[in-house]
Amino acid sequence: MTIVLNSDSAHDTAEAGRSLAAQLNKGSCVALFGDLGAGKTSFVRGLAEGLGLKARVTSPTFTIVNEYLGTVPLFHFDMYRLKSEDELFELGWDDYLDRGGIIAVEWSERAANSFPENTVRVHIEKTGEHSRRIEIVYPEE
Predict the structure, then answer these.
(1) Per-residue DSSP letters for the chain?
(2) From CA 74, how far away is CA 141, in angstroms rounded?
(3) What is the pLDDT at residue 92?
(4) Cα-atom radius of gyration of the chain, to the nearest Å?
(5) N or C: which end of the chain has fewer CB within 10 A?
(6) Alpha-carbon distance 141 to 134, whole Å?
(7) In this structure, are residues 82 and 111 in contact, taking their beta carbons and an 8 Å threshold?
(8) Beta-sheet strand order (sheet of 29-33)
(9) What is the pLDDT of residues 94-104, one digit of tens each?
(10) Average pLDDT, integer, range 1-18
(11) Phi, psi of 34 (to 5 degrees)
């Protein structure tokens, strides 16, 4: 199933993330795709809010992963600085997959072969200065 949403602001993009959070289960993985400044972090910010997390969500560009702990933890990855998928596994990717939290990954195209089959894929495309087209592709059941 694929859902397409239109966003006119960072708030709308975050709202799309909040809505998706209600549909995820422990262990879900969300792969985000989009150019620099598309709104991937805004989407994850909404995802965190939808999970009931009160943390200040920021892009983990330099840390590679930020952990936001709660009833259901959120592991927020940014693959932008990775040179290969092997680096992802050196960081303990398999361990994160087994921890039972929600995993959200920015710049997912850099690790395209590392995601579980049940991954939700979110493509965010700039359509204007503040507008975005958000395509959410759910895995086939």
Answers:
(1) -EEEEEESSHHHHHHHHHHHHTT--TT-EEEEE--TTSSHHHHHHHHHHHTT--S-----TTTSEEEE-SSS-EEEEE-TT-SSHHHHHHTTHHHHHHTTSEEEEESGGGGTTSS-TT-EEEEEEE-SSS-EEEEEEPPP-
(2) 23
(3) 84
(4) 14
(5) C
(6) 22
(7) yes
(8) 2-7, 132-137, 120-126, 29-33, 102-106, 74-78, 65-68
(9) 899 999 899 99
(10) 94
(11) 160, 155
Q: How far is CA 141 from CA 1, 81, 108, 118, 132, in A?
A: 9, 33, 22, 8, 28
- Token match 């289960």: residue? 25
**Partner residues linked to 121 by β-bridges:** 31, 137
d(CA 34, CA 122): 9
Structure-block tokens of residue 116: 């579980």
